[in-house]
Amino acid sequence: MVNDVYMEYIVKRTKGTKEKLGVAGIIALAVILTFVMIILIFAGALALTQTGFSQFAFSIGLVLIAFMWYFAVFFMKKFNVEYEYILTNSEIDIDKIMSKSQRKRIISFDFAEVEIVANINDDAHNAQYKNQAKQVELYDLTGDASSGGVYFVDFTHGGKPARVLFQPTSRMIEAIRKFNPR
Fold first, then answer.
1. Residue 20 class from Cβ within 10 Å (0-12 exposed, 13-18 middle, 19+ buried)?
2. pTM for the complete prediction?
């Protein structure tokens, strides 16, 4: 009789070039729009000095700048991604956590029904890892692939072949092996 298994593990995704460029683009756009808004505020304030609305235009401009930076920070936080692996007996749920506040279920599957679970650097299964079918739905749910410990799982999801790349702990691998020795 196998004891019940429950494990959670969170992997922080490292920012790649695409994510770093996205954050840099958001900051650059916010800085440019701030300068444009400041110029418009002062130009509007100078034009409206005779009508008495200069303080109102200045206040509205500052509020708009504050809202713009609020949304810039909001969108930059979307690039802070973590993956949570939740192993319950032979089933795993993988969630994407954005900004440490929003959670989205990415995929769930049962290890008892998978074809293979192996390290991507495992010599015995290296050919299977490198020769994936062209129509495979790939889920890269790793934190930092360069740190090692990346495993691939091949299975059928919704009638289509799928592959998940993830970085479980050694305890998770041992628990998975109990339910599926393959």
1. exposed
2. 0.75
